[in-house]
Amino acid sequence: MPFVLQGDEGVIGLLVLQQRLGRLMENAGLGRADPHYTPHMTLLYGDRTVDDEAVRPISWAVREFVLVHSLLGRSRYNVLARFPLRAQA
Fold first, then answer.
1. pLDDT of 52-87, one tens digit each?
2. Three-state secondary structure along 11-44?
3. Does 89 map to a domain?
4. What is the distance between the alpha carbons of residues 66 and 57, in angstroms, rounded to a whole number?
5. The pLDDT of residue 8
6. What's the chain's average pLDDT?
7. Side-chain-facing half-sphere of 18: CA atoms under 13 Å
8. How many folded domains does the chain comprise?
9. Which of 41, 71, 73, 75 could link 5 by a cystine bridge, Cβ 3.0 to 4.6 Å?
10. What is the mean pLDDT of residues 26-41?
11. Is 11 a member of any domain?
12. Predicted TM-score (pTM) above 0.85
């Protein structure tokens, strides 16, 4: 069972990006993106559950966008491409 961090309204931009990328992928014949995508960060896996708990906001600078092929069920990820992001002035 994964132990994850999830956001609230602060991840709206990420959801919009995922939806747009999904439409572009589908239009390019690459299949459909998961419509039930939930932005999260997996912290660890364990065999017990923990109740949801609010935490103070966490933020960090994003310097690149990475295209990753996730091998489902294998906990393996292959980096396909990296795209550096420019800082906003």
1. 999 998 888 889 989 898 887 787 899 999 999 987
2. HHHHHHHHHHHHHHHHHCCCCCCCCCCCCEEEEE
3. no
4. 24
5. 84
6. 87
7. 13
8. 1
9. 41
10. 86
11. yes
12. no
Contact indicator for 59, 41 with CB cutoff of 8 Å: no
State which amino acid sits at residue 89.
A
Q: Is residue 14 in some structural domain?
A: yes
23 occurs within a structural domain: yes
The pair of three-digit structure tokens given for residue 79, joined into one six-digit string = 């980096």
Q: Cα separation of 42 and 89, whole Å?
A: 31
Provide the pLDDT confidence category of residue 89 given band limits of 50, 70 and 90.
Answer: low
Q: What long-range pairs does 5-8 form, CB within 8 A, spacing at least 24?
A: 5/40, 5/41, 5/43, 5/55, 5/58, 6/38, 6/39, 6/40, 7/39, 7/40
